[in-house]
Amino acid sequence: MGFVITSERIADPVRYEKVGRLLPGDDEMIRVMVDGFGEVMRIPKSDFVLLWNGLSPDGMRLSESENRVILSGEGEEYVVLTRQVRGMLEGWPKKKAAVFVMRENTP
Asked: Domain of life here (predicted)?
């Protein structure tokens, strides 16, 4: 006779929803593209280097774990993964990175 193992997991208070991409732009700029809105901001590549060296350029900050970069602009906070941005800068201009927003998880 078989048996069933059930498992319950408490949901995280927030979820990340993919809303766009970081794309390489002209003049060493990174374009923040949001689906349905187009380009919402441009960020110099050097701002990410400053961020990883301990300085916080205007509108940018690292998460506590330093796994995410939080971009503030246009009344919304966008989140990108640090690993993806580093890969994008190393593979410039061929690589891209995903852009997310944090949403409250509703049951």
From this structure: Archaea
Residue ranges covered by each domain of the chain: 14-104
Nearest CA to 44 among 58, 64, 65?
A: 58
User: Which secondary-structure segment (H or E) carries 24?
Assistant: strand 14-24
Q: Are 33 and 23 in contact (CB under 8 A)?
A: yes
- pLDDT > 90 fraction of the chain, expressed in percent and rounded: 71
Cis-peptide into 93, omega within 30 deg: yes
Q: Which stretch of DSSP H or E encloses residue 69? A: strand 68-73
The two tokens of residue 61 are 């900050």
User: Do 91 and 7 meet the contact criterion of CB atoms below 8 Å apart?
Assistant: no
Contact between 70 and 43 under an 8 Å Cβ cutoff? The reply is: no
Task: Report the distance separating Cα 58 and Cα 106, nearest Å.
Answer: 32
| Count of Cβ atoms closer than 10 Å to residue 100 Cβ | 17
pLDDT at residue number 76:
87
